[in-house]
Design goal:
Radius of gyration: 31 Å
Strand content: 15-25%
Number of helices: 13
CATH class of the largest domain: Alpha Beta
Order of helices and strands: HEEHHHEEEEEHHHEHHEEHEEHHEEH
Number of domains: 2
Largest sheet: 5 strands, antiparallel
Structural class: alpha+beta
CATH architecture of the largest domain: 2-Layer Sandwich
CATH superfamily of the largest domain: Histidine kinase-like ATPase, C-terminal domain
Helix content: 40-55%
């Protein structure tokens, strides 16, 4: 086959010929595709299904079971959209009209499952049904059927409760991530006064010099213009510090896109500059150039800023205060190291380092590192800590490299 393996496969035909009874729905529950098996089981043509809302396909003026099935289906699909979790429905009776006009009693087992795009957004719903009429109507197994159905209803209820709880946990995790970010901002803000004092004092000095220079005299205008330019530069520097911090603080959930690693790291260091200056910490950066990654920029910067802030805090009692940020490519993955020259980690702390609420800071919450590791894992990487040589600690994390195909997709 030309164009590489699988390039000549028609996936629509492959889907339509699947033996499973599937429909593909969009977020508004419109039917986008159907398998032949579903059309045969429902005794309806594909042209009747596609383009119509699945709820409109259920005749509410038919048997009472149709109305009950429509209500149950709507509730299930709405749960899928709201919770972004699969939702199983109890066995439903939904009778089928035969070609000669007779009504045939039928029972169905249904599962609705979300499908997400590359950015993690819910874009489709797989509606899967299975005809369980023979098992349901078997008189020999009526008691067993009822027992299984009751058990199934109980299981589904528990699963739905679990899905609700998972949704609440997702909201809590998002809140904790933002809390950790704001905690980092609070630490940075305490150093911000020190950093802001420099451009403000410089602008004040330049303004005083301007007042003394008799700037209104023609031979002094060039000097006055130079001083005004310096004042403007210092004001812009102060504005930039505030703007960058505010952008980081207010950033919400973003999406993964192609980004340059070196640019991402340098901007994170720039955001951390107030903490570095107030702690008299020097930083040494050696990052691979022209390396692209597919990441949520704000989230990975949150990881870097947290590691830089922790490293600066760990070196308060060190004479040589220096942070090293390095990157290397190994086994197809990109590794980033943030190393300090502090006192290192106590063994009992090292063992629990990534557990929530483990902290050595009097003002720390102990959430930064667990959240950082979770962010890295959600990007397909891992995070760990090791001893630096000769002193200090190294925090390392990996990210998958971007390929050409990923770049085009993003």
């Amino acid at each position: 086959m030309s164009g590489g393996p699988g390039s000549d496969i028609d996936y629509r035909i492959l889907f339509e010929k699947s033996p499973a009874q599937f429909l593909v729905l969009d977020r508004q529950f419109n039917v986008l595709a159907a398998t032949d098996s579903y059309c045969r089981a429902a005794r309806v043509g594909r042209d009747v299904l596609t383009g119509r809302n699945i709820l409109d396909l259920i005749p509410l003026d038919g048997p009472p079971s149709h109305r009950e099935a429509a209500i149950a289906l709507r509730e299930s699909l709405e749960r899928v959209v709201r919770l972004e979790k699969s939702d199983a429905m109890p066995i439903q009776r939904f009778d089928i009209q035969t070609s000669d006009g007779e009504i045939e009693e039928r029972y169905w087992s249904t599962m609705n499952s979300p499908v997400f795009d590359e950015a993690g957004r819910l874009c489709w719903i797989i509606y899967r049904v299975r005809d369980v009429t023979n098992t349901t109507l078997d008189p020999k197994s009526e008691a067993a059927r009822r027992e299984r159905e009751e058990e199934l209803v109980s299981i589904i209820a528990r699963l739905r409760g679990a899905n609700e709880e998972l949704a609440r946990l997702d909201e809590l995790r998002a809140g904790l991530t933002q809390m950790a970010r704001l905690n980092t901002v609070a630490i940075m803000a305490s150093a911000l006064a020190h950093d802001m004092a420099q451009p403000v004092a410089a602008a004040r000095n330049f303004l005083a010099a301007l007042r003394r220079s008799n700037w209104f005299q023609s031979d002094k205008r060039e000097q006055a213009g130079d001083l005004l330019g310096k004042i403007e530069a210092q004001i812009e520097r102060a504005s930039s510090i505030i703007r960058n911090l505010r952008q980081y603080m207010t950033a919400g959930e973003g999406q993964k896109q192609v980004d340059d690693l070196a640019d991402l790291v340098h901007e994170a260091v720039k955001l951390s500059d107030p903490v570095l200056k107030v702690n008299n910490v020097e930083i040494d950066i050696a990052i691979e150039q022209n390396v692209e990654v597919v990441v949520d920029r704000v989230q990975i910067q949150q990881v870097l800023i947290n590691l830089i802030t922790n490293a600066a805090d760990a070196m308060r009692d060190s004479a040589n205060r220096r942070i090293f940020i390095r990157s290397q490519i190994a086994d197809g993955a990109l590794r980033v190291d943030v190393a300090d020259t502090g006192t290192g980690l106590a063994p009992d702390v090292a063992q629990r380092l990534f557990e929530p609420f483990t902290t050595t800071k009097s003002s720390g919450m102990g959430l930064g590192l667990p959240i950082c590791r979770q962010i890295v894992k959600e990007h397909g990487g891992n995070m760990w800590a090791s001893a630096n040589v000769p002193v200090g600690t190294v925090f390392s994390f990996t990210l998958p490299r971007n390929s050409g195909e990923d770049s085009e997709a993003a």
